Amino acid sequence: MEELQLTPEQEAEVARQLDVIRRGVAEIVPESELVEKLRHSVATGTPLRVKLGMDPTAADIHLGHTVVLHKVRQLQDLGHRAHLVIGNFTGRIGDPTDKSETRKQLSEDEVQRNAQTYVTQVYKILDPNKTDIVYNADWLGPLNFADVIRLASTLTVARMLEREDFTKRFRENRPIHIHEFFYPLMQAYDSVHLHTDIELGGTDQKFNLLMGRTLQKEFGMPMQIAIMMPLLEGLDGVHKMSKSLGNYIGVDESPNDMFGKMMSIPDDLMFKYYELLSFRRTDEIEAMRSAVASGQTNPRDVKMALAEELVNRFLGPQAVKDAVAHWHQVFQSGAIPEDIEEVQVPAEPVWIVKLLVDCGLAASNSEARRSIGEGAVRINGEKVKDVDLNFTPADGDVLQRGKRQFKRLRLQ
RNA sequence: GGAGGGGUACCAAAGUGGCCAAAUGGAGCGGACUGUAAAUCCGUUGCGGAAUGCUUCGUAGGUUCGAAUCCUACCCCCUCCA
Protein backbone atom coordinates (compact mmCIF):
# COMPACT_ATOMS: atom_id res chain seq x y z
CA MET A 1 0.00 0.00 0.00
CA GLU A 2 1.39 3.40 -0.96
CA GLU A 3 2.02 6.13 1.60
CA LEU A 4 -1.15 8.08 2.17
CA GLN A 5 -1.30 11.66 3.17
CA LEU A 6 -4.20 12.28 5.50
CA THR A 7 -5.58 15.53 6.80
CA PRO A 8 -5.42 16.03 10.56
CA GLU A 9 -9.18 15.42 10.73
CA GLN A 10 -8.75 12.15 8.92
CA GLU A 11 -5.90 11.12 11.17
CA ALA A 12 -8.11 11.85 14.14
CA GLU A 13 -10.86 9.73 12.65
CA VAL A 14 -8.48 6.83 12.18
CA ALA A 15 -7.38 7.14 15.80
CA ARG A 16 -10.99 7.24 16.94
CA GLN A 17 -11.88 4.15 14.97
CA LEU A 18 -8.87 2.28 16.20
CA ASP A 19 -9.84 3.13 19.71
CA VAL A 20 -13.33 1.74 19.30
CA ILE A 21 -12.08 -1.36 17.56
CA ARG A 22 -9.53 -2.11 20.26
CA ARG A 23 -12.09 -2.14 23.01
CA GLY A 24 -12.44 -5.55 24.58
CA VAL A 25 -10.56 -7.45 21.89
CA ALA A 26 -8.17 -10.21 22.80
CA GLU A 27 -5.85 -9.77 19.87
CA ILE A 28 -5.52 -7.99 16.56
CA VAL A 29 -3.21 -9.58 14.04
CA PRO A 30 -1.46 -7.50 12.91
CA GLU A 31 -2.48 -4.14 14.27
CA SER A 32 -0.14 -2.19 12.04
CA GLU A 33 -1.91 -3.47 8.95
CA LEU A 34 -5.23 -2.60 10.49
CA VAL A 35 -4.08 0.98 10.85
CA GLU A 36 -3.10 1.00 7.18
CA LYS A 37 -6.46 -0.35 6.12
CA LEU A 38 -8.26 2.19 8.26
CA ARG A 39 -6.21 5.04 6.85
CA HIS A 40 -6.96 3.90 3.35
CA SER A 41 -10.62 3.53 4.15
CA VAL A 42 -10.87 6.95 5.71
CA ALA A 43 -8.86 8.61 2.97
CA THR A 44 -10.89 7.13 0.13
CA GLY A 45 -14.22 6.83 1.88
CA THR A 46 -14.33 3.10 1.19
CA PRO A 47 -15.90 0.90 3.87
CA LEU A 48 -13.85 -2.09 4.95
CA ARG A 49 -15.28 -5.52 4.30
CA VAL A 50 -15.81 -7.31 7.57
CA LYS A 51 -16.49 -11.02 7.68
CA LEU A 52 -18.07 -13.14 10.34
CA GLY A 53 -18.80 -16.78 9.81
CA MET A 54 -21.42 -18.77 11.63
CA ASP A 55 -22.03 -22.45 11.42
CA PRO A 56 -25.71 -23.21 11.43
CA THR A 57 -25.19 -26.21 13.67
CA ALA A 58 -27.38 -25.12 16.55
CA ALA A 59 -30.50 -23.10 16.30
CA ASP A 60 -30.01 -20.71 19.16
CA ILE A 61 -27.41 -18.14 19.91
CA HIS A 62 -26.42 -17.12 23.40
CA LEU A 63 -24.63 -14.12 24.82
CA GLY A 64 -21.27 -15.75 24.18
CA HIS A 65 -21.92 -15.57 20.46
CA THR A 66 -23.02 -11.98 20.69
CA VAL A 67 -19.59 -10.78 21.79
CA VAL A 68 -18.29 -11.13 18.28
CA LEU A 69 -21.50 -9.82 16.77
CA HIS A 70 -21.22 -6.82 18.96
CA LYS A 71 -17.80 -6.05 17.61
CA VAL A 72 -19.14 -6.35 14.10
CA ARG A 73 -21.84 -3.88 15.03
CA GLN A 74 -19.23 -1.44 16.26
CA LEU A 75 -17.43 -1.73 12.96
CA GLN A 76 -20.68 -1.09 11.16
CA ASP A 77 -21.24 1.99 13.26
CA LEU A 78 -17.84 3.15 12.10
CA GLY A 79 -19.13 2.92 8.57
CA HIS A 80 -17.88 -0.49 7.53
CA ARG A 81 -19.80 -3.26 5.86
CA ALA A 82 -20.32 -6.78 7.16
CA HIS A 83 -20.59 -10.11 5.44
CA LEU A 84 -22.34 -12.61 7.59
CA VAL A 85 -21.32 -15.95 6.17
CA ILE A 86 -23.74 -18.70 6.91
CA GLY A 87 -21.64 -21.83 6.75
CA ASN A 88 -24.19 -24.00 5.06
CA PHE A 89 -21.36 -25.80 3.34
CA THR A 90 -18.75 -25.82 6.09
CA GLY A 91 -21.40 -26.62 8.63
CA ARG A 92 -21.83 -29.99 7.09
CA ILE A 93 -18.30 -30.84 8.10
CA GLY A 94 -18.16 -29.06 11.38
CA ASP A 95 -15.23 -27.22 12.81
CA PRO A 96 -13.02 -29.88 14.29
CA THR A 97 -12.87 -29.68 18.04
CA ASP A 98 -11.54 -32.16 20.49
CA LYS A 99 -15.03 -32.67 21.78
CA SER A 100 -16.70 -34.00 18.73
CA GLU A 101 -14.37 -35.58 16.27
CA THR A 102 -17.17 -36.56 14.04
CA ARG A 103 -19.99 -34.15 13.99
CA LYS A 104 -23.29 -35.30 12.72
CA GLN A 105 -24.08 -34.14 9.26
CA LEU A 106 -26.91 -31.71 9.08
CA SER A 107 -29.62 -32.03 6.53
CA GLU A 108 -30.29 -29.28 4.04
CA ASP A 109 -33.50 -28.57 5.87
CA GLU A 110 -31.99 -28.22 9.32
CA VAL A 111 -29.31 -25.92 8.00
CA GLN A 112 -31.92 -23.76 6.37
CA ARG A 113 -34.03 -23.57 9.49
CA ASN A 114 -31.08 -22.84 11.79
CA ALA A 115 -29.83 -20.19 9.44
CA GLN A 116 -33.20 -18.50 9.51
CA THR A 117 -33.20 -18.41 13.30
CA TYR A 118 -29.72 -17.00 13.30
CA VAL A 119 -30.61 -14.24 10.98
CA THR A 120 -33.54 -12.99 13.03
CA GLN A 121 -31.54 -13.15 16.23
CA VAL A 122 -28.50 -11.58 14.69
CA TYR A 123 -30.38 -8.49 13.63
CA LYS A 124 -31.00 -7.63 17.23
CA ILE A 125 -27.38 -6.60 17.19
CA LEU A 126 -26.27 -6.00 13.64
CA ASP A 127 -27.32 -3.14 11.42
CA PRO A 128 -29.36 -4.74 8.63
CA ASN A 129 -28.52 -1.92 6.24
CA LYS A 130 -24.86 -2.68 6.47
CA THR A 131 -25.07 -6.44 6.51
CA ASP A 132 -24.94 -8.87 3.62
CA ILE A 133 -25.95 -12.37 4.41
CA VAL A 134 -24.21 -14.86 2.22
CA TYR A 135 -24.11 -18.64 2.07
CA ASN A 136 -20.79 -20.29 1.48
CA ALA A 137 -22.28 -23.26 -0.33
CA ASP A 138 -22.81 -20.78 -3.16
CA TRP A 139 -19.11 -20.67 -3.92
CA LEU A 140 -17.75 -23.73 -2.16
CA GLY A 141 -20.32 -26.03 -3.70
CA PRO A 142 -19.31 -25.48 -7.33
CA LEU A 143 -15.62 -26.18 -6.72
CA ASN A 144 -14.57 -29.43 -8.33
CA PHE A 145 -12.00 -31.90 -7.17
CA ALA A 146 -9.24 -30.28 -9.19
CA ASP A 147 -10.01 -26.92 -7.58
CA VAL A 148 -9.88 -28.50 -4.17
CA ILE A 149 -6.56 -30.15 -4.89
CA ARG A 150 -5.17 -26.81 -5.99
CA LEU A 151 -6.35 -25.24 -2.76
CA ALA A 152 -4.98 -28.04 -0.67
CA SER A 153 -1.61 -27.94 -2.39
CA THR A 154 -0.93 -24.51 -0.96
CA LEU A 155 -0.61 -25.99 2.48
CA THR A 156 1.49 -28.56 4.21
CA VAL A 157 0.62 -31.07 6.85
CA ALA A 158 3.14 -29.50 9.18
CA ARG A 159 1.39 -26.19 8.78
CA MET A 160 -1.94 -27.78 9.58
CA LEU A 161 -0.53 -29.45 12.63
CA GLU A 162 0.34 -26.04 14.00
CA ARG A 163 -3.25 -25.84 14.96
CA GLU A 164 -3.33 -26.63 18.63
CA ASP A 165 -6.25 -28.97 18.46
CA PHE A 166 -4.68 -31.02 15.69
CA THR A 167 -1.31 -31.14 17.43
CA LYS A 168 -2.92 -32.35 20.55
CA ARG A 169 -4.88 -35.04 18.88
CA PHE A 170 -1.91 -36.09 16.83
CA ARG A 171 0.25 -36.34 19.93
CA GLU A 172 -2.39 -38.29 21.76
CA ASN A 173 -2.87 -40.62 18.85
CA ARG A 174 -6.47 -39.69 18.43
CA PRO A 175 -7.87 -39.71 14.96
CA ILE A 176 -7.70 -36.70 12.69
CA HIS A 177 -9.75 -37.20 9.61
CA ILE A 178 -8.41 -35.80 6.40
CA HIS A 179 -11.57 -33.90 5.69
CA GLU A 180 -11.13 -32.01 8.92
CA PHE A 181 -8.10 -30.36 7.40
CA PHE A 182 -10.40 -28.81 4.87
CA TYR A 183 -12.43 -26.90 7.37
CA PRO A 184 -9.89 -24.12 7.97
CA LEU A 185 -9.15 -24.16 4.28
CA MET A 186 -12.75 -23.59 3.34
CA GLN A 187 -13.20 -20.87 5.89
CA ALA A 188 -10.07 -19.24 4.49
CA TYR A 189 -11.42 -19.54 1.00
CA ASP A 190 -14.51 -17.63 2.10
CA SER A 191 -12.21 -14.71 2.78
CA VAL A 192 -10.62 -15.06 -0.64
CA HIS A 193 -13.99 -15.12 -2.32
CA LEU A 194 -15.34 -12.16 -0.39
CA HIS A 195 -12.13 -10.11 -0.47
CA THR A 196 -12.38 -9.77 3.25
CA ASP A 197 -10.48 -6.98 4.99
CA ILE A 198 -11.22 -7.96 8.54
CA GLU A 199 -12.35 -11.30 9.86
CA LEU A 200 -13.69 -11.67 13.37
CA GLY A 201 -13.84 -14.65 15.64
CA GLY A 202 -13.23 -15.91 19.12
CA THR A 203 -9.71 -16.59 20.31
CA ASP A 204 -10.38 -20.24 19.56
CA GLN A 205 -10.64 -19.26 15.90
CA LYS A 206 -7.11 -17.93 15.66
CA PHE A 207 -5.79 -20.63 13.42
CA ASN A 208 -8.71 -20.41 11.03
CA LEU A 209 -8.50 -16.64 10.87
CA LEU A 210 -4.81 -16.71 10.13
CA MET A 211 -5.40 -19.34 7.48
CA GLY A 212 -7.46 -16.74 5.69
CA ARG A 213 -4.40 -14.51 5.50
CA THR A 214 -2.26 -17.32 4.19
CA LEU A 215 -4.67 -18.21 1.46
CA GLN A 216 -5.33 -14.64 0.43
CA LYS A 217 -1.60 -14.13 0.04
CA GLU A 218 -1.49 -17.28 -2.02
CA PHE A 219 -4.12 -15.75 -4.29
CA GLY A 220 -2.15 -12.54 -4.54
CA MET A 221 -4.60 -10.34 -2.72
CA PRO A 222 -4.25 -8.12 0.35
CA MET A 223 -4.34 -10.09 3.55
CA GLN A 224 -7.18 -9.74 6.01
CA ILE A 225 -6.81 -8.57 9.57
CA ALA A 226 -7.74 -11.10 12.21
CA ILE A 227 -9.57 -9.71 15.20
CA MET A 228 -10.09 -12.14 18.03
CA MET A 229 -12.55 -11.60 20.82
CA PRO A 230 -12.16 -13.16 24.24
CA LEU A 231 -14.41 -16.07 25.01
CA LEU A 232 -17.11 -14.98 27.40
CA GLU A 233 -17.26 -16.85 30.65
CA GLY A 234 -20.61 -18.32 31.51
CA LEU A 235 -22.72 -17.84 34.61
CA ASP A 236 -20.28 -19.85 36.70
CA GLY A 237 -17.54 -17.34 35.90
CA VAL A 238 -15.12 -20.12 35.13
CA HIS A 239 -15.90 -21.96 31.95
CA LYS A 240 -16.64 -20.39 28.65
CA MET A 241 -20.29 -19.89 27.99
CA SER A 242 -21.67 -22.87 26.21
CA LYS A 243 -24.89 -24.62 25.79
CA SER A 244 -23.53 -27.99 26.76
CA LEU A 245 -22.29 -26.67 30.08
CA GLY A 246 -25.65 -25.09 30.81
CA ASN A 247 -24.03 -21.87 31.94
CA TYR A 248 -25.40 -19.74 29.15
CA ILE A 249 -27.93 -17.01 28.63
CA GLY A 250 -29.82 -17.46 25.38
CA VAL A 251 -30.97 -14.39 23.53
CA ASP A 252 -34.45 -15.86 23.26
CA GLU A 253 -35.04 -16.66 26.90
CA SER A 254 -37.94 -15.40 28.93
CA PRO A 255 -37.49 -11.94 30.45
CA ASN A 256 -37.44 -13.31 33.97
CA ASP A 257 -34.86 -15.93 33.16
CA MET A 258 -32.60 -13.61 31.28
CA PHE A 259 -32.79 -10.95 33.92
CA GLY A 260 -32.38 -13.40 36.76
CA LYS A 261 -29.44 -15.11 35.15
CA MET A 262 -27.73 -11.79 34.57
CA MET A 263 -28.19 -10.89 38.20
CA SER A 264 -26.67 -14.15 39.28
CA ILE A 265 -23.30 -13.70 37.62
CA PRO A 266 -20.41 -13.24 40.02
CA ASP A 267 -19.59 -9.61 40.71
CA ASP A 268 -16.10 -10.08 39.41
CA LEU A 269 -17.48 -10.95 36.03
CA MET A 270 -19.77 -7.96 35.78
CA PHE A 271 -17.41 -5.51 34.15
CA LYS A 272 -16.14 -8.04 31.70
CA TYR A 273 -19.72 -8.49 30.59
CA TYR A 274 -20.03 -4.74 30.36
CA GLU A 275 -16.96 -4.49 28.23
CA LEU A 276 -18.01 -7.21 25.87
CA LEU A 277 -21.78 -6.92 25.74
CA SER A 278 -22.84 -3.41 26.59
CA PHE A 279 -23.35 -0.64 24.04
CA ARG A 280 -22.30 1.93 26.63
CA ARG A 281 -19.25 4.05 26.06
CA THR A 282 -15.99 3.03 27.62
CA ASP A 283 -15.77 6.11 29.81
CA GLU A 284 -19.23 5.44 31.23
CA ILE A 285 -18.21 1.94 32.13
CA GLU A 286 -15.00 3.16 33.70
CA ALA A 287 -16.96 5.63 35.77
CA MET A 288 -19.16 2.84 37.09
CA ARG A 289 -16.16 0.70 37.81
CA SER A 290 -14.54 3.33 39.95
CA ALA A 291 -17.83 4.16 41.65
CA VAL A 292 -18.19 0.55 42.67
CA ALA A 293 -14.58 0.24 43.69
CA SER A 294 -14.85 3.25 45.96
CA GLY A 295 -18.06 1.98 47.48
CA GLN A 296 -20.12 4.88 46.16
CA THR A 297 -22.36 2.63 44.16
CA ASN A 298 -23.91 -0.65 45.08
CA PRO A 299 -22.62 -3.30 42.66
CA ARG A 300 -26.11 -4.67 42.51
CA ASP A 301 -27.40 -1.53 40.84
CA VAL A 302 -24.65 -1.60 38.29
CA LYS A 303 -25.37 -5.22 37.52
CA MET A 304 -29.04 -4.45 37.30
CA ALA A 305 -28.40 -1.71 34.77
CA LEU A 306 -26.59 -4.23 32.62
CA ALA A 307 -29.36 -6.77 32.96
CA GLU A 308 -31.85 -4.12 31.94
CA GLU A 309 -29.83 -3.11 28.92
CA LEU A 310 -29.57 -6.65 27.65
CA VAL A 311 -33.17 -7.61 28.29
CA ASN A 312 -34.21 -4.43 26.54
CA ARG A 313 -32.06 -5.15 23.53
CA PHE A 314 -33.21 -8.69 23.04
CA LEU A 315 -36.74 -8.65 24.40
CA GLY A 316 -37.84 -5.05 24.46
CA PRO A 317 -38.83 -2.40 27.03
CA GLN A 318 -41.96 -4.14 28.27
CA ALA A 319 -39.92 -7.22 29.09
CA VAL A 320 -37.60 -5.10 31.19
CA LYS A 321 -40.48 -3.72 33.21
CA ASP A 322 -41.91 -7.16 33.82
CA ALA A 323 -38.61 -8.72 34.70
CA VAL A 324 -37.57 -5.96 37.08
CA ALA A 325 -40.92 -6.05 38.85
CA HIS A 326 -40.80 -9.79 39.16
CA TRP A 327 -37.24 -9.77 40.37
CA HIS A 328 -37.87 -7.16 43.03
CA GLN A 329 -40.86 -8.96 44.29
CA VAL A 330 -39.40 -12.41 44.49
CA PHE A 331 -35.76 -12.01 45.24
CA GLN A 332 -35.48 -8.75 46.97
CA SER A 333 -38.50 -8.52 49.20
CA GLY A 334 -38.79 -12.25 49.62
CA ALA A 335 -42.51 -11.96 49.10
CA ILE A 336 -44.64 -14.57 47.47
CA PRO A 337 -44.74 -13.87 43.74
CA GLU A 338 -47.90 -13.26 41.77
CA ASP A 339 -47.85 -15.80 39.03
CA ILE A 340 -47.12 -19.08 40.68
CA GLU A 341 -47.54 -22.33 38.89
CA GLU A 342 -50.75 -24.00 39.96
CA VAL A 343 -51.27 -27.62 40.80
CA GLN A 344 -54.50 -29.53 41.14
CA VAL A 345 -54.94 -31.35 44.42
CA PRO A 346 -57.84 -33.30 45.91
CA ALA A 347 -59.76 -31.56 48.69
CA GLU A 348 -58.84 -34.03 51.36
CA PRO A 349 -56.17 -34.32 54.04
CA VAL A 350 -52.76 -35.33 52.71
CA TRP A 351 -49.50 -36.15 54.32
CA ILE A 352 -47.26 -33.14 53.80
CA VAL A 353 -44.37 -35.23 52.51
CA LYS A 354 -46.54 -36.77 49.85
CA LEU A 355 -47.95 -33.40 48.92
CA LEU A 356 -44.49 -31.99 48.31
CA VAL A 357 -43.64 -34.87 46.02
CA ASP A 358 -46.94 -34.67 44.19
CA CYS A 359 -46.47 -30.98 43.54
CA GLY A 360 -43.02 -31.53 42.16
CA LEU A 361 -41.31 -29.63 44.93
CA ALA A 362 -39.36 -32.70 45.97
CA ALA A 363 -38.07 -35.63 43.96
CA SER A 364 -38.71 -38.25 46.61
CA ASN A 365 -40.22 -38.74 50.01
CA SER A 366 -36.77 -38.75 51.52
CA GLU A 367 -35.94 -35.44 49.92
CA ALA A 368 -39.20 -33.96 51.12
CA ARG A 369 -38.52 -35.14 54.65
CA ARG A 370 -35.09 -33.62 54.56
CA SER A 371 -36.42 -30.30 53.40
CA ILE A 372 -38.89 -30.18 56.23
CA GLY A 373 -36.10 -31.05 58.62
CA GLU A 374 -34.13 -28.13 57.22
CA GLY A 375 -37.00 -25.78 57.89
CA ALA A 376 -37.35 -25.04 54.20
CA VAL A 377 -41.00 -25.87 53.73
CA ARG A 378 -43.76 -23.36 54.28
CA ILE A 379 -47.49 -23.29 53.77
CA ASN A 380 -48.78 -19.76 53.17
CA GLY A 381 -45.55 -18.46 54.62
CA GLU A 382 -45.81 -20.53 57.75
CA LYS A 383 -42.98 -22.92 58.45
CA VAL A 384 -43.84 -26.60 58.58
CA LYS A 385 -42.13 -28.33 61.50
CA ASP A 386 -43.83 -31.67 61.68
CA VAL A 387 -42.81 -34.31 59.17
CA ASP A 388 -45.92 -36.28 59.95
CA LEU A 389 -48.25 -33.36 59.41
CA ASN A 390 -51.50 -34.13 57.71
CA PHE A 391 -52.82 -31.10 56.01
CA THR A 392 -56.12 -30.28 54.40
CA PRO A 393 -55.50 -27.94 51.50
CA ALA A 394 -57.72 -24.96 50.84
CA ASP A 395 -58.07 -23.48 47.37
CA GLY A 396 -55.29 -20.96 46.74
CA ASP A 397 -52.93 -22.16 49.43
CA VAL A 398 -49.30 -21.56 48.58
CA LEU A 399 -46.82 -24.32 49.19
CA GLN A 400 -43.21 -23.24 49.27
CA ARG A 401 -39.83 -24.89 49.43
CA GLY A 402 -36.88 -22.69 50.07
CA LYS A 403 -36.86 -19.11 48.94
CA ARG A 404 -37.90 -19.52 45.40
CA GLN A 405 -39.89 -22.61 44.74
CA PHE A 406 -43.60 -22.00 44.94
CA LYS A 407 -46.76 -23.86 43.99
CA ARG A 408 -50.32 -22.68 44.34
CA LEU A 409 -52.80 -25.37 45.26
CA ARG A 410 -56.07 -25.62 43.40
CA LEU A 411 -58.72 -27.97 44.60
CA GLN A 412 -59.96 -30.43 42.06
C1' G B 1 -5.48 -60.15 15.69
C1' G B 2 -1.82 -59.75 20.27
C1' A B 3 -0.44 -57.25 25.17
C1' G B 4 -1.86 -54.18 29.11
C1' G B 5 -5.16 -50.62 31.91
C1' G B 6 -10.00 -49.41 33.40
C1' G B 7 -15.71 -49.23 34.33
C1' U B 8 -17.71 -46.61 41.86
C1' A B 9 -23.34 -42.07 43.31
C1' C B 10 -25.44 -36.01 39.02
C1' C B 11 -19.95 -35.31 37.44
C1' A B 12 -14.76 -36.06 38.80
C1' A B 13 -12.25 -39.23 41.98
C1' A B 14 -10.71 -42.39 46.65
C1' G B 15 -11.68 -47.08 48.56
C1' U B 16 -8.88 -53.62 47.19
C1' G B 17 -12.87 -58.77 52.55
C1' G B 18 -16.37 -56.47 58.01
C1' C B 19 -15.36 -49.74 60.96
C1' C B 20 -18.90 -48.68 53.34
C1' A B 21 -25.05 -45.95 51.79
C1' A B 22 -19.31 -45.68 50.34
C1' A B 23 -13.60 -40.42 51.71
C1' U B 24 -12.71 -35.81 49.04
C1' G B 25 -13.75 -31.98 45.31
C1' G B 26 -17.30 -29.96 41.91
C1' A B 27 -22.50 -29.39 40.99
C1' G B 28 -27.41 -29.39 43.27
C1' C B 29 -30.67 -28.35 47.39
C1' G B 30 -31.42 -25.90 52.22
C1' G B 31 -29.89 -22.37 56.09
C1' A B 32 -27.14 -17.97 57.93
C1' C B 33 -25.18 -13.49 56.39
C1' U B 34 -25.36 -9.64 52.62
C1' G B 35 -26.26 -6.01 48.27
C1' U B 36 -29.07 -10.25 44.61
C1' A B 37 -29.99 -16.17 42.72
C1' A B 38 -22.57 -12.59 43.97
C1' A B 39 -18.80 -13.86 47.80
C1' U B 40 -18.22 -16.38 52.49
C1' C B 41 -19.65 -19.85 56.26
C1' C B 42 -22.71 -24.04 57.89
C1' G B 43 -25.91 -28.18 56.85
C1' U B 44 -27.59 -31.65 53.33
C1' U B 45 -27.50 -34.78 48.75
C1' G B 46 -29.93 -43.64 47.10
C1' C B 47 -34.99 -45.30 48.43
C1' G B 48 -38.25 -45.91 52.36
C1' G B 49 -44.99 -43.12 56.47
C1' A B 50 -38.30 -44.59 59.05
C1' A B 51 -37.59 -50.38 60.68
C1' U B 52 -31.21 -53.59 64.26
C1' G B 53 -35.68 -51.97 56.78
C1' C B 54 -34.62 -52.21 51.33
C1' U B 55 -31.63 -51.54 46.88
C1' U B 56 -26.74 -49.50 44.96
C1' C B 57 -19.90 -49.60 43.16
C1' G B 58 -20.40 -52.18 34.32
C1' U B 59 -23.79 -57.11 33.76
C1' A B 60 -24.76 -62.20 35.35
C1' G B 61 -23.34 -65.97 38.40
C1' G B 62 -20.06 -68.01 42.40
C1' U B 63 -16.76 -68.24 47.09
C1' U B 64 -17.60 -66.44 52.24
C1' C B 65 -20.86 -65.88 58.53
C1' G B 66 -19.89 -61.26 55.66
C1' A B 67 -18.10 -58.61 48.93
C1' A B 68 -17.42 -52.17 45.78
C1' U B 69 -13.32 -55.27 47.44
C1' C B 70 -11.81 -62.49 46.03
C1' C B 71 -13.19 -66.11 41.69
C1' U B 72 -15.72 -67.18 36.72
C1' A B 73 -18.19 -65.61 32.35
C1' C B 74 -19.97 -61.65 29.52
C1' C B 75 -20.54 -56.35 27.87
C1' C B 76 -18.28 -51.58 27.22
C1' C B 77 -14.15 -47.90 27.22
C1' C B 78 -8.91 -46.61 26.83
C1' U B 79 -3.52 -47.34 25.74
C1' C B 80 0.45 -49.90 23.24
C1' C B 81 1.82 -53.39 19.26
C1' A B 82 0.15 -55.32 14.29
Walkthrough of the structure:
The chain is an alpha/beta fold and 412 residues long. It has 3 domains: 8-229, HUPs (Rossmann fold, 3-Layer(aba) Sandwich), CATH 3.40.50.620; 255-332, Tyrosyl-Transfer RNA Synthetase (Orthogonal Bundle); 342-411, Roll (Structural Genomics Hypothetical 15.5 Kd Protein In mrcA-pckA Intergenic Region, Chain A), CATH 3.10.290. The chain has helices spanning 8-22, 31-44, 63-77, 108-122, 137-140, 145-152, 157-160, 164-171, 178-194, 206-218, 255-263, 267-277, 282-293, 299-315, 317-332, 352-358, 365-373; strands spanning 27-29, 49-54, 81-86, 131-135, 198-202, 225-229, 342-345, 350-351, 377-379, 382-383, 390-391, 398-401, 405-411. The strands form 3 sheets. It has a 6-stranded mixed β-sheet with strand order 1-6-5-2-3-4, sandwiched between helices. A 5-stranded mixed β-sheet has the order 7-13-12-9-10, with no helix packed on it. It is elongated. Mean pLDDT is 83; it is low at 98-103. The chain binds one RNA strand of 82 nucleotides through residues 173, 236-237, 260-261, 263-270, 298-301, 303-304, 327, 330-332, 351, 353-354, 364-367, 369-371, 373-376, 387-388, 401-405.
Provide a quick synopsis of the model.
This protein is of the alpha/beta class.
